[in-house]
Specification:
The structure is a homodimer. Chain A is mostly helical and about 280 residues long. The first copy, chain A, has two domains: about 150 residues, no CATH class; about 110 residues, no CATH class. Chain A is about 75% helix and about 5% strand. In chain A, about 50% of the residues are buried. Chains A and B meet through helix 4, helix 5, helix 7 and helix 8 of A and helix 4, helix 5, helix 7 and helix 8 of B.
């Protein structure tokens, strides 16, 4: 989430970069989402890979070499397993990927088995944080009847919260939400964002003719997770003492902090919607 | 996880309390787990409630009053919904519980809608962090054929990692694992704990005649999540600047930091095993 209280020329330039980036990315995302199938995979997979790279390089004194060499193919295979509906593929990928990480890291530094295990742990965190949610999002999109609707519900909750939190924060922002973790967020922004996301998701379900009372808890909880996922990523950056998450020379979204900053809420919301539908026996 | 590098008389007294507590709690936990059904619920529900209370009071300047009044009944109803296999019960409980929290908090402080929404957010975090994992654990135990085996797999991973990390840490602990978050944990302890948990889970599956290759990723990942869940709770305590998580006058486990300290790894491992079985179509 981004909420500005200060308005100077540097921020205006940043805002201009942001808007240019968004005007390219939003149509691409909308088209790939509408198309679904392999085209949606072609959007989701590269973004996930960059996100995982950003996550791996965040940790100081522990650069990405080993873990991303095995972690990224593992993540790709997990998403592909969910896409193809093949349980053994994602399970084998997860097991082999972590075993390969361990073997590779021991080969690289035979005297440091502790380092090897730490690399396996970091790789696993990246997979749980980014690969599974991507797999869930792809699964949601590929539901035969209503995949597109669920995807737009996820988008409405994620970016609805984010966008309206920015707007409300600029106009009404007074009370800091979590000053230690993310100084620009305000309580007023978060409230405005959450309520607007509820309205957006409500309208999507209404238009799709799927306004069922049992979906209410899913919609009510969603925007809170969007705020929470955003704070969580800000917390990660704070713990690892980095300002922006992007990999040097790899900032694909000018004006934005990196891919992680754009998908931090999405991974939580997609996981929640997927979990809710699976637990209800709807998936 | 608890790993000692220093050994003085205060720690010996603490260790004695710990052992006395464990010698009462472990038989109770084993008996309730073996019995299953309502008896297992009678163990799980009170521990969950204390854990949620501990989580709510952790946050400074925001004591538990409002959120626990609505949050704890909501959590109980969610676990009951999973126990009875009733989707509408847990979904209605979640929706009504959050709506009731909002209404109650607005009634308590009508001029502070931001405070009310923050209370809803905190209540939701407590439910996601503790109520759903408890519901998953109860669901696992109540699988008609193999519930007890899965429960013991979860226990082996959770407390196997914890116990052996303590033992290995005391004897071989040299390298700090995460000095900023949890100063007593060592890399050597974590490695020993993870490997011993693998062996324990392997033997349970072997004895039960359920040693299938497709379960390997679940077992491999489990102990890493036990370590991660433990670090996560330590991180929470650090963010909220509390040393022990227990509610004043409510320390049910003398010698231990509180219920959250004992179940921080369990909630992650139970969620992972449940998710793995559901995603594989085994649940």
């Amino acid at each position: 989430m981004r909420e500005g209280l200060v308005s100077d020329s540097a921020e205006s330039a940043n805002l201009r970069d942001r808007i240019i980036t968004a005007s390219v990315l939003v149509p691409v995302a909308v088209l790939a989402s509408l198309a679904g199938g392999w085209l949606f995979l072609c959007l989701a997979l590269p973004l996930m890979c960059i996100g995982i790279l950003e996550f791996f390089v965040m940790e100081k004194d522990r650069p990405m070499q080993g873990s991303s060499l095995t972690g990224i193919p593992t993540a790709l295979a997990i998403v592909l397993g969910f896409y193809l509906g093949s349980d053994w593929l994602w399970q084998a990928a997860l097991g082999l990927g972590l075993a390969a990480t361990l073997a590779l890291e021991i080969a690289r530094q035979p005297r440091r088995p502790d380092y090897a295990l730490a690399q396996v742990g970091t790789t696993l965190c990246g997979i749980l944080y980014l690969a599974f949610p991507t797999a869930f999002l792809v699964s949601l999109r590929n539901r035969p009847e209503d995949g597109l609707m669920w995807l737009f519900v996820v988008y409405a909750i994620t970016w609805g919260t984010d966008t309206f939190a920015y707007v409300f924060g600029r106009f009404f922002g007074r009370t800091k939400l979590a000053p230690l973790i993310s100084p620009n967020k305000t309580v007023e922004g978060a409230i405005g964002g959450i309520i607007c996301a509820w309205v957006l998701a409500f309208f999507i379900l209404l238009v799709a003719g799927r306004l069922e009372p049992r979906l209410a808890p899913m919609i009510v909880v969603g925007p809170f997770l969007a705020v929470g996922g955003d704070l969580f990523e800000s917390g990660l950056k704070r713990i690892f003492r980095v300002k922006d998450s992007y990999v040097a020379g790899f900032n694909v979204f000018p004006g934005h902090g990196g891919v992680l900053d754009r998908i931090d809420a999405l991974v939580w919301v997609a996981s929640w919607v997927f979990f809710y539908l699976v637990s209800s026996g709807t998936a």
